Amino acid sequence: MKKIILSLVVTLTGMAYHPSAYAQEDTVQATKFRKYWNSLINGNVDRTFERKMDMSFVVAPCYTREGGVGIGGAATALYRLDKRDSTMQPSDFSISGSVTVKGFYGITLKGNNHFKGNRSRLSYLVQFQNKNLDFWGVSYDACTRNPMSGYKRQMINWESDYVYKLTSDFHIGATFKMNYTSVSELTNSTYLEGQRSSYFLTGMGVSLQYDTRDFILNPKRGIYAIIREVVYPEFTGSHNKTIFSTTAILDAYRQAWPGSVFAFDLYGQFNNGSIPWTLREEIGSGTSRMRGYYAGRYMDNNQIAVQLELRQQIYKRLGCVAWCGGGTVFPSFQKFNLRTVLPNYGLGLRLEFKHNVNIRIDYGFGKQTGGFVFQFAEAF
Predict the structure, then answer these.
(1) Whether 234 contacts 265, CB under 8 Å
(2) Element of type H or E holding 143
(3) Read out DSSP for 3-34?
(4) pLDDT surpasses 60 at 19
(5) What is the pLDDT of residues 295-316, one digit of tens each?
(6) Which residues pair with 131 in a beta bridge?
(7) pLDDT, tens digit, for every residue of 187-231?
(8) How far apart are the C-alpha atoms of 73 and 297, rounded to whole Å?
(9) Which pLDDT does position 13 carry in this prediction?
(10) So which domain of life are we looking at (predicted)?
């Protein structure tokens, strides 16, 4: 019996403590941490020719003008479908999500997939968002006179563009868009001006593009010009009218001295007068234009915005930017007024997270406003 008890004690003791097992687990954890740390420290090295997918990720505190302080995570990756073609820029995708103290949570997936042969590209954006937002109205005039209200806004958004090269620089594209937006807990329903609280809309379109950029996410040189026409037929959504939407963009990039890039962006979005509020243009939305404005502070059918940005490398992977510009939203060309143009300018820092892909931290100023923007890739 004593031998049996002694054997049991030895067995239980061995189960409770195995120095070699603990040491092995610590080694595995240390190896994982070193790999992760190395992906951050050396993440800017191009490894797309040796790996199927070159990915890095980060989890950190975050801040948005609308959502406040929170916790966020993001992963971005570069890859090549044809590793033998060194002249073709790599494909990319990123996924990011966050939760904030103001009840905001959301996830975004976006990317650009370059197919073999470098003749076509698929660009895509998928978003899900739940936001508790301030609200002033759905037209510029209403936004300037109404006191601040509030609502909860939920959105599912899908945008995709398939582009085919006609020549080395000219492309023709097909567009598909789907958007569902709904609001609840609306403090003042009159701010919707008689429109519904939710809409489901599906659009299809075509585009013509001229593109000589060397890299989509961080161009150093080249020109990008696009004209896109999208139609939202009445029978493909919950709006009782057919909607027409036109997008025009002109971007130009040029190096002036070593480490510098001057970037110019002219943006126009024009919609017919029957467009529902969920598709109307919002100053400050999208984190690319009119940075620093509260998204939705000014809203209307159409938008024109322009910006000039200087991007300067400081040291190795660290850089900075400064920009100035302006923009406005308006109901129609007949009612466009230069006095409604809002100023925009700001400063930012850049850190090369992946090869030629920056994390950007911008602080933008505007008319009686200002705010931070955190994002992957350049603004335009």
Answers:
(1) no
(2) helix 140-145
(3) HHHHHHHHHHHHHH--HHHHHHHHHHHHHHHH
(4) no
(5) 999 999 999 999 999 999 999 9
(6) 153
(7) 999 999 999 999 999 999 999 999 999 999 999 999 999 999 999
(8) 27
(9) 42
(10) Bacteria
Which two three-digit tokens encode residue 166? 């006609």
Task: Show the domains of the chain with their CATH numbers.
Answer: 21-376 (2.40.160.50)
DSSP string, 148-175: PEEEEEEEEEEEEEEEEESSSSEEEEEE
CA-CA distance, 204 to 208, in Å (whole number)? 14
CB under 8 A, 24+ apart: contacts of 188-194:
188/135, 188/149, 191/135, 191/136, 191/137, 191/138, 191/142, 191/146, 191/149, 192/138, 192/277, 193/137, 193/138, 193/139, 193/142, 193/277
**pLDDT class for 320, splitting at 50, 70, 90?**
very high
Task: Tell me the pLDDT tens digit for each residue of 106-159.
Answer: 999 999 999 999 999 999 999 999 999 999 999 999 999 999 999 999 999 999
E strand or H helix at 60: strand 54-64
Residue type, 221: R
Contact in structure between 232 and 242 (CB atoms under 8 Å): yes
Structural contact between residues 229 and 246, judged by C-beta atoms closer than 8 angstroms: yes
**Cα gap 90→87, rounded to integer Å:** 9
Q: Are 115 and 95 in contact (CB under 8 A)?
A: no
Report angle CA 58, 63, 65 to the nearest 5 degrees: 145
Backbone angles phi, psi at 32, to 5 degrees: -60, -40
Two structure tokens written together for 29: 């954890």
High-pLDDT (> 70) share of the chain, %: 89
**In terms of residues, how long is the chain?**
380
**Kind and range of the H or E run holding 142:** helix 140-145
The letter for the amino acid at 299 is M
Q: How many CB atoms lie within 10 A of CB 278?
A: 22
* pTM above threshold 0.90: no
